[in-house]
Amino acid sequence: MKFLQFAFLFHLMLQPSFQNGLIAQKQKMIVFDHAKSSIEIMGTTNVSDFGCAYNVRLPKDTLMIALKNAEKMLEIKGASLRLPIKSFKCDNSPMTSDFRKLLKAEEHPYINIKLIGIYKIESLKNHAEIAINIAGVQKHFTIATHIEKTDEAYLCEGNPELCITDFGIEAPEKFFGMVKVNEDITVAFSLSFSVYDL
């Protein structure tokens, strides 16, 4: 979402060049409002729900933007994010420990996210193509996002669903199979940020 660190706003900021079929490159700095931003991974078991929130300040980011009027897609270069798994805190300490084991944090300590491009459509609802690497396995996804612009900042939100077995992670069982984690998880992000020219 940054989870996706998300330069989705460039679809709005640079829309005239995109519509005219021009190719341009710009550098921008994104500064997140940590008090208004959140990233959470949520899942369910056969007995309860759980949530694990990212607990570390999101860094400033510099992105190289390439605009190409190809198939109505805004191509983004250099937009990537590394989220330390140990920076996610769950509802309680045992659950946090189980979450880290589930995502194989000792062998693969980061969730890596790369923003590849944004499909331009007429409303503020966009589709972004991203690559996510969890537990050493990378997969490509197309996710729906929503962008809102206020007087002071941009707000980008989304809640894509992922299947952990796509990343070679087996849904665990506890207490002799009495508690089972479901394969599907949701990554909910709400990112408030401002953008500055370099």
UniProtKB/TrEMBL annotation:
The Lipid/polyisoprenoid-binding YceI-like domain, residue ranges: 57-193
Superkingdom as given in the UniProt entry: Bacteria
Cited Pfam families: YceI
Gene3D superfamilies associated with the record: Lipid/polyisoprenoid-binding, YceI-like
Protein name per UniProt: Lipid/polyisoprenoid-binding YceI-like domain-containing protein
